[in-house]
Amino acid sequence: MTEMTLRAEALTLGYGERRVIDDLSLALPAARMTTILGPNGCGKSTLLRAFARLIRPQAGVVTLCGEDIHGQDTRALARRIAILPQAPLAPEGISVGDLVKRGRAPWRGLLSPWSRADAEACAGALQAVGMTEHQERRLDELSGGQRQRAWLALVLAQGTPLLLLDEPTTWLDLTHQLEVLSLLRQRNRDAGTTVVSVLHDINLAARFSDHLILLGPGGLVAEGTPEVVVTTENLQRAFRLAARIQPDPVTDRPMVIPL
User: Name one GO cellular component term (predicted).
Assistant: First the structure.
């Protein structure tokens, strides 16, 4: 897949008169795993929505490959970026298989027949998240974790070089959290897919990410490798958290022990 870089330039985001992000500039490294971290209300999901063109900046610009994202063709953009929002909505009674098929919409015209490529993309996505045997079941019959995996299959079926995921491990037990993050890392390593996630678990973020963006109440606290970002000083600034940092015994990445 083609490497694509999303960039924020002097970005200000908010809702009405309430500013959430103010004058933020940063780039999301192409073909890497990036995680956005920070306390509740600091603007993590808002920033992700801006990168997905779901909200328009109050000031500044978001660019994809150097071009303003708001000036790009909608269908072309949907072939480049897939987003899994925090609380996605689906039609009542829809099956898992039909939900996942919706991920192929950017690649199909109004009267286009269902193709072998479409079928293979959906089957591969269902298999990747372990939902093949549930594809005939209604989404509203599933557990929260199963529903989350069905939604993840939809964005994987979309087949984009860039994934934006807002808390993709929500509702998942620890085993499935590790499976999903391992799957995303494998997708990143094998296909060069750029994966950008919002997570709350700092230790999982440090274990699986190449690049971290840490937001705090005052804006950007730090960005860079886990070793650069996950420090006692940065955690104090972002979360007002007293913690000890030691190497993860499995990966040697930084691991947070709250005090």
Answer: plasma membrane
Residue 126 parent element (H or E): helix 116-128
Q: What domain count does the chain have?
A: 1
Q: Which residue range forms the structural domain that includes residue 32?
A: 6-209
Beta strands in the chain (DSSP E): 6-15, 18-28, 33-37, 59-64, 67-68, 81-84, 162-166, 194-198, 211-216, 219-224, 243-247, 254-258
Contact (Cβ atoms closer than 8 angstroms) between residue 95 and residue 138? yes
Are 156 and 83 in contact by the 8 Å Cβ rule? The answer is no
Is 130 in contact with 149 (CB distance < 8 Å)?
yes
As given in the structure block, the two tokens for residue 193 are: 């897919």
Instruction: Return the CATH number at 190.
Output: 3.40.50.300
Residue 247 lies in a domain: no
pLDDT of residue 54: 95
Q: Is residue 217 part of a domain?
A: no
Model pLDDT for residues 10-19, shown as the tens digit of each residue: 999 999 888 9
Quick one: tokens of 259?
Answer: 């005090």
Asked whether the beta carbons of 207 and 158 are under 8 A apart, the reply is no
Distance CA 135, CA 97 (A): 4
Distances (CA, A) of 62 to 30, 37, 52, 58, 166: 15, 19, 9, 11, 18
In a domain, 216, yes or no: no
- Collect all residues with Cβ–Cβ distance below 8 Å to 40 and sequence separation of at least 6: none
DSSP string across 23-84: EEEEEEPTTSEEEEE--TTSSHHHHHHHHTTSS--SEEEEEETTEEGGGS-HHHHHTTEEEE
Residue 41 lies inside a defined structural domain of this protein? yes
pTM of the full structure: 0.94
Over residues 134-164, the pLDDT tens digits come to 999 999 999 988 999 999 999 999 999 999 9
Token pair recorded at residue 203? 């230790």
